[in-house]
TrEMBL record:
BP GO terms, sorted: regulation of DNA-templated transcription
Cellular component terms per the entry's GO annotation: cytoplasm
Molecular function per GO: ATP binding; biotin--[biotin carboxyl-carrier protein] ligase activity
Top-rank taxon, per record: Archaea
Listed EC numbers: 6.3.4.15
Species of origin: Halorubrum ruber
Record protein name field: Biotin--[acetyl-CoA-carboxylase] ligase
Residue ranges of domain BPL/LPL catalytic in the record: 1-199
Residues of the full protein shown: 66 to 327 of 329
Length: 262
């Protein structure tokens, strides 16, 4: 199936016109002991978003989930999510869309003049419109990943009228529909390249930094332990955001990040 999809990556592809959720299907395959499968769908009827949020996945998007069983410590698992954000950004750039990453893994497009300080504010990140989101699910032992499902949702050929507020699509940015098969293949190939060995994983943070929108910006991060506000200065292993706050430097491992006006 990998060959039929024209894919130069070590995954077999299960394609569905319509599915509840590709993440859910990938989890079923994981329960059957499978690995190295990419589930790709044209439309999802029961998508899962981060933090239990709703995610719209009508026909025309790129909705996919990659199931692997990487032989790495559980502590490094967040790198796979960041790798998916890098891979999605690169696939978008290949079709001419200047995508950037908002920590930890939202892929945004900041239009000319709409960077920090402009009034393009929205629910998902001021100064940018959300092109893609990523939801990772995993199971493993304390020290080793068992299976890992990285789900990527890209608003590919979606009419802007039907997008949620603060979102954009590849077709809207490009002014014409994109080749979704090719886009998915680029994304999957790049993801495989970034994650296929422990050495390759070492390259994820440098690649993420180069594509980041968040670094150098004022941010407000909503974490389980409260709000962290300050200047985002770096991302550190295994994907923590380093924020300079009035109380000093803090590392944030998980949370919802908002870019503030500078
Ligand atoms: C987010 O909330 O930003 C993450 C959204 C992730 C959506 C994708 S679409 C493919 C995969 N299947 C799902 O049900 N969710 C993810």
């Amino acid at each position: 199936p990998g060959i039929a999809f024209g894919l130069d990556a070590p995954y077999s592809v299960e394609y569905r016109d319509r599915i509840g959720s590709t993440n859910e299907r990938a989890r079923e395959l994981a329960a059957e002991g499978k690995s190295d499968v990419a589930v790709v769908a044209d439309e999802q009827t029961g998508s899962r978003g981060r933090l239990d949020r709703e995610w719209m996945a009508p026909s025309g998007g790129v909705w996919l989930s990659i199931l692997t069983r990487p032989d790495v410590p559980t502590a490094r698992a967040p790198l796979f999510t960041l790798a998916a954000a890098v891979a999605t950004t690169d696939a978008a750039r290949e079709v001419g869309v200047d995508a950037r990453i908002k920590w930890p893994n939202d892929v945004l497009v900041e239009r000319e003049g709409s960077a920090a300080g402009a009034d393009d504010s929205d629910a998902t990140g001021r100064g940018g419109r959300k092109l893609a989101g990523i939801l990772t699910e995993m199971e493993g032992e304390a020290d080793r990943v068992g299976w890992l499902v990285v789900g990527v949702g890209v608003n590919a050929n979606i009419d802007p009228e039907t997008l949620p507020a603060g979102a954009t699509s590849l077709s809207d940015e490009c002014g014409a529909p994109v080749d979704r098969r090719r886009f998915a293949a680029t994304l999957l190939e790049r993801y495989a390249e970034l994650t296929d060995s422990p050495e390759a994983l070492d390259g994820v943070l440098p690649a993420w930094r180069e594509r980041a929108s968040t670094l150098g910006r004022r941010v407000r991060v909503d974490t389980a332990d409260g709000i962290v506000e300050g200047t985002a200065v770096d991302v550190a292993e295994p994907g923590a955001l380093v924020v300079d706050t009035d109380e000093g430097r803090q590392r944030v491992h998980a949370g919802d990040c908002e870019h503030l006006r500078d």
